[in-house]
Design goal:
Elements: E1 2-4, E2 7-9, H1 28-60, H2 64-81, H3 88-107
Antiparallel strand pairs: 1-2
Helix pairs in contact: 1-2, 1-3, 2-3
């Protein structure tokens, strides 16, 4: 074994191009790339929520602002204790749809 710095490394094998492998630390571009990815993911998630709200409003023939309010409330309640976030929009949609159907059936005997 060769001693490189204070770390022992095995001798290079036939597939190793260079030993030791240089490690690049994080730089400004990495942070920028990460922030752009986070913004993109948030934009996609926001568009998905908006699409869900519009579909619920159309499906239940309910005013868009009322559906948005119910959806935002349901999503906030779910987010408060969520460990897995992948299905929150599905659960929020189901909660709002159930609430709107219950309201509609109680107002139309």
């Amino acid at each position: 074994m060769a001693l490189v710095g204070s770390i022992r490394h095995p001798p290079p094998g036939p597939f190793d191009k260079a030993w030791p492998i240089p490690v690049r630390g994080p730089d400004e571009n990495d942070a920028e790339d990460f922030m752009m990815q986070v913004r993109d993911e948030k934009a996609v998630e926001s568009a998905r929520h908006q699409s869900t709200i519009e579909a619920l409003a159309h499906e239940t023939r309910t005013e868009l602002s009322h559906v948005r309010q119910l959806y935002d409330q349901a999503l906030a309640r779910l987010e408060a204790n969520a460990k897995v976030r992948g299905y929150l929009s599905v659960l929020a949609r189901r909660t709002v749809r159930t609430a709107l159907r219950a309201t509609r059936s109680s107002s139309h005997p």
